[in-house]
Amino acid sequence: MTVTVATFYKFFTFPDYREQQVPLLNYCQTQGIKGTILLASEGINATLAGTENAIASVLDYLRSDPRLHDLDVKLSYAETPPFERLKVRLKKEIVTFGHPEVDPTQQVGQYVPPQGWNQLISDPEVVVIDTRNDYEVKIGTFTNARNPQTRSFREFPDYVKQHLDPQKQPKVAMFCTGGIRCEKATAYLLKQGFQEVYHLQGGILRYLAEIPPEESLWQGECFVFDERIAVEHGLEPGSYGMCSACGHPLSPAEQESPAYEPGIACPYCAESTAVIGNR
To answer: Does Oxidoreductase count among this protein's keywords (predicted)?
Structure first.
């Protein structure tokens, strides 16, 4: 049975988010949905999996709220369920950035659809930045994109302060998995005085879904936060696995490494695991 996977987010004023937790959890449970929903006063962020009809029902339920009538959803498909359970969590932020003064409902960068992205990032005057974490970037990224080498999104503002200058790099284009991190990243850059700030509409996932491989400037696979680990063009499941000990994604070559023992250790944690084991 093919599983439908729906990824979506929206920033909006959501003062009653706590009251919506239980009703939303209950409705998703009646539909047999698995996945994660994050609720905060700034909006909603979710990736859900279920049958096609179940996903459609949950989306109809959400869109019945006037604040979510225009909810933009990215759909992909998997042969096996990418989640084991359902979680509806209350958070301070739907994507943790640590700068409450940054409000994507007030200002964000210019959205660039996948069809216009190649032309933008091919402009030598445009600085292209991958806003994701280092382990995600290593799996795949766009040609000539900068890797901030962050371990968490909270570190991104420090990267901006140390490596970017609105006077020297007036044109900046950013991208992330589904688009949500760029909402805050572009809003932050605008507050720092950058004039031309762009972000990939729908993120890497929409680009991989809509741009043919022969026209693509994407290299590698795209990490996703579920049991598929990574996806390729057409949002087909990728070749990466994951170390259950440390959670690091593993390429096929790394899964063949002598340091990889399923459920025990991998090349990224073998040394620390051995140290712990010798205590």
So the answer is: yes
